[in-house]
């Protein structure tokens, strides 16, 4: 989320036409097209964040700027060239790194929260814990995971929470 994504489409010589057909999970479809005989591009229902990366007659790559959850979906490039017709489909999945919060609850137990990540984060503790993480899904597809450190019979003064996520790992320590 927030980065740019470039989707390549096999550049063929003697391109007649290139069409990007975009079907997002949210909202309606859009298309970007290029016709070589008229050296003309057109767009239908595409936001400004989607455009050709370069000139479509040289390289028909698509750039999606400031990727957001609403960009998730299928992106198909169709090329018509003298060698034939070529299709390439991408399924764009957006990763959202969770916000890590570590605090002490009313009973002095460390609580680790990985908020609004996509997909759900994994929470681990440096010392073994009998914790069972709780997950809460949100309407936008993100998930908040909450884990309370519970180590019975040990006197722990400082503990570390590790959040594992495809968008990157994070850790924080706290003394309760």
From TrEMBL:
Database matches in PANTHER family: CELL SURFACE GLYCOPROTEIN CD200 RECEPTOR 2, CELL SURFACE GLYCOPROTEIN OX2 RECEPTOR PRECURSOR
Residue ranges of domain Ig-like in the record: 1-93, 112-175
Annotated keywords: Disulfide bond, Glycoprotein, Membrane, Receptor, Transmembrane, Transmembrane helix
Entry GO CC: external side of plasma membrane
Organism of this sequence: Sagittarius serpentarius
Membrane topology (UniProt): Single-pass membrane protein
Protein family: Belongs to the CD200R family.
Molecular-function GO terms, alphabetical: signaling receptor activity
Subcellular location(s) of the protein: Membrane
Protein name as catalogued: MOR1A protein
GO biological process, one term: regulation of neuroinflammatory response
Cited Pfam families: C2-set_2 (PF08205), V-set (PF07686)
């Amino acid at each position: 989320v927030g980065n740019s994504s470039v989707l390549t489409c096999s550049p063929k010589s003697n391109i007649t036409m290139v069409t990007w057909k975009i079907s997002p999970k949210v909202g309606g479809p859009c298309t970007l097209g290029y016709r070589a005989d008229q050296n003309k591009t057109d767009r239908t229902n595409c936001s400004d964040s989607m455009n050709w990366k370069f000139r479509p007659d040289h390289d028909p790559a698509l750039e999606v700027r400031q990727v957001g959850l609403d960009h998730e979906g299928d992106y198909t490039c169709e090329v018509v060239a003298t060698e034939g017709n070529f299709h390439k489909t991408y399924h764009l999945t957006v990763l959202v790194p969770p916000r890590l919060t570590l605090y002490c609850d009313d009973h002095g137990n460390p609580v680790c929260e990985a908020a609004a990540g996509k997909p759900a984060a994994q929470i681990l503790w440096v010392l073994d814990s009998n914790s069972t993480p709780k997950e809460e899904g949100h309407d936008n597809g993100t998930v908040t995971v909450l884990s309370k450190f519970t180590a019975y019979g040990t006197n722990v003064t400082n503990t570390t929470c590790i959040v594992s996520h495809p968008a990157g790992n994070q850790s924080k320590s706290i003394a309760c």
